[in-house]
Amino acid sequence: MKINSLFYEEFKDDILKCTLCPHQCILYPGKTGICRVRQNVKGEMYSLNYGDVTSMALDPMEKKPLFHFHPGEKILSLGTWGCNLKCPFCQNYEIAHMKPEYQKKIYPSAIPSLIDNYGVRGVAYTYSEPIVWYEFVLDSSRQVKYANPDNYNVLVTNGFINEKPLRLMLQYIDAMNIDLKVYNDKNYMKLLKGGLEPVKNTIKIAYEEGIHIEVTTLVVPKVNDNLDELEEEFSWLANISKDIPLHLSRYFPAYKYNESPTDINFLERTYELAKKYLNFVYLGNILSSTYENTYCPDCGTLLIQRKGYDIKIENLNENGECKNCGRKICIV
Ligand code: SF4
Q1: Mean per-residue pLDDT for 70-78?
Q2: How many other CB atoms sit within 10 Å of the CB of residue 58?
Q3: CA distances from 17 to 22, 40, 316 (A)
Q4: Residue with CA closest to ligand 1 atom 3
């Protein structure tokens, strides 16, 4: 489904500049941008994937991953096609970098009754990149909030977006999981065709706007398995808030990248390093629940026990405080 895009400007005659993400693609008539889902049609910019749903499922919140946002709840997860980065190890490449045959057309006005029918309160825009699904996500998240202010919207995103569209969208967003893929601007650009500073900016702005944020770093051999760089990342995040949950995930070969999966010992060392800076660090894609549990940073009491998607809230009171020492825990 095609609709006019919200963020672009005239570059020259019928040539347009897309201003949605930092690529700022210059598009001649008929051409699409790096994301493949924005096109210059006779001097007007269109979003090509509005309402195209390629994946839809009822997921555990922890799968996003969000560990400190409505733990144990289910969330309706929607994805489309297209992405503005080019990670060679993309874990969702079938929809991010190809156009799947199967697409369901869904209008934003249908989303509130869809979540009601599923008996859930929230929608996650996930699987591929919600930034390049901008107009649909904006309309849908607005409808979800208008239908009931207690409903919530979640973005699972690479964070590579310009500030103006980000701020507009955040009005309707409650939580985000933001990928911070490599703490090195050159490698962000060279290996992933993105950039570090815009992603850091997204994290900072979302935090300042009071959005619940969690950060994910997929630890990929020969891309970001550099402890000095990772330490810089942890220290930078801790300067925003030591309470931002960080997910360090194990990589497995996918798409165009064939390196062996991340070494578990290295992942554990990375975890120990991150714990020197941050209060809530988790390891993902490994078979060990020890690294998935939430402990009180002050007294060490087990607060939330996780075994896969089996969640037990153990020692948190209704005010979100540790029952043992009273420390306030950042859980929404
Ligand atoms: S959203 Fe797409 S078309 Fe627009 S600047 Fe980014 S990659 Fe280019």
Answers
A1: 96
A2: 12
A3: 11, 9, 50
A4: 33
Sequence ranges of the domains in the chain = 3-47, 52-292, 300-332
The per-residue pLDDT for range 163-183, each reduced to its tens digit, is 999 999 999 999 999 999 999
Question: 287 CA to middle of ligand 1, Å?
Answer: 37
**CATH 3.20.20.70 is right for the domain spanning 52-292:** yes
* CA-based end-to-end distance of the chain: 35
Residue having the nearest C-alpha atom to atom 6 of ligand 1? 21
What's the maximum distance between 2 C-alpha atoms anywhere in the chain?
A: 67
Q: Which of 81, 84, 162, 193 to mutate to test the pocket of ligand 1 (most atoms within 8 A of CB)?
A: 84
Q: Give the residues surrounding ligand 1 with Cβ less than 6 Å away.
A: 18, 20-21, 23-25, 33-35, 38, 84, 132
Each residue's pLDDT tens digit, 194-227: 999 999 999 999 999 999 999 999 999 999 999 9
